[in-house]
UniProtKB/TrEMBL annotation:
<dbReference type="Pfam" id="PF14398">
    <property type="entry name" value="ATPgrasp_YheCD"/>
</dbReference>
<protein>
    <submittedName>
        <fullName>YheC/YheD family protein</fullName>
    </submittedName>
</protein>
<dbReference type="InterPro" id="IPR026838">
    <property type="entry name" value="YheC/D"/>
</dbReference>
Length: 242
């Protein structure tokens, strides 16, 4: 269940989720060209990666090509040169290319959201937690292991939305989490917990960047509201003891 490709395929089958998944294809030269022509900015990531490792941001601008990996940036005059360099980075690992989302920023740093969704003791999917992750300066991933900072969602949204609109956005994200759980479980029956990585663009569209099937619960300890972490652990224990 670690293949991002397999999970993406399963999610695409639900029409109410489909349009929130950035176009994703397997990495090869023809697809790289096509995706850059279509979107100008794309992300490349290992099919089975984690912690944001190996994730790259690639762009095409004014006839030049470039990519960023960690804080390293490289620039190229041709697609061929770009592709050769990326091939060195990806080595023999299976990679995906995904439409790049221009993530909203908080004090100049990109952020995304982690939405925790669990099968509750009544065997129904329930969104149990939500937390923002702010990337370290100049970084392209928000993961904690890559210097990202956890932050309450309300604080991040307050810069971009009124209080009432932010509350409505959170409700919509909770529902999206539940829909995603139901859809994935129909394909993977053992599934009990998921963590959605959701990126917001300027229009506040919630793009599902990835769905994790063993999401880290401990990040929720960083929220001021301790009841969130307690509930997440309670639900997790309820399943283990069966
Ligand atoms: N299409 C995209 N557009 C913009 N940013 C992206 C995109 N895909 C990934 N990112 C950024 O890179 C981060 C890492 O990507 P992703 O979650 O897909 O892989 P991962 O973190 O390595 O996997 P895991 O969450 O299991 O550790 C995301 O949290 C997000 O900040
Ligand atoms: Mg992730």
């Amino acid at each position: 269940m670690s293949s991002k490709w397999k999970k993406t395929e399963a999610l695409l089958r639900n029409p109410s989720i489909r349009n929130l998944i950035p176009k994703t294809v397997r990495f090869n030269k023809a697809q790289l060209k096509k995706m850059l022509d279509n979107y100008r900015m794309v992300y490349a990531k290992p099919d089975t990666g984690s912690y944001g490792n190996g994730v790259m941001r690639i762009h095409q601008k004014n006839g030049r090509f470039g990519y960023q990996h960690g804080e390293r940036m490289k620039s190229f005059a041709s697609l061929d040169a770009l592709y050769e360099a990326l091939r060195q980075e990806t080595k023999h690992r299976s990679y995906l290319i995904q439409k790049g989302i221009h993530l909203l920023k908080y004090k100049g740093s990109r952020f995304d959201l982690r939405v925790m969704v669990q099968l509750n003791p009544n065997k129904a999917w329930e969104t149990t937690g939500m937390i923002g992750r702010v990337a370290a300066r100049r970084k392209i991933v928000t993961n904690f292991h890559n210097g990202g900072t956890p932050m309450p969602v309300s604080r991040l949204l307050s810069v971009h939305l009124s209080k009432s609109k932010a509350a409505r956005k959170v409700k919509a994200l909770e529902k999206l989490g539940v829909r995603t759980g139901i859809t994935l479980r129909s394909k993977f029956p053992g599934l009990r917990v998921i963590g959605l990585d959701v990126g917001l663009d300027h229009s506040l569209t919630p793009w599902i960047l990835e769905v994790n099937t063993s999401p880290d619960p401990y990040i929720f300890r960083r929220l001021p509201d301790k009841s969130v972490f307690r509930k997440i652990m309670r639900y997790a224990r309820a399943h283990r003891s069966k």
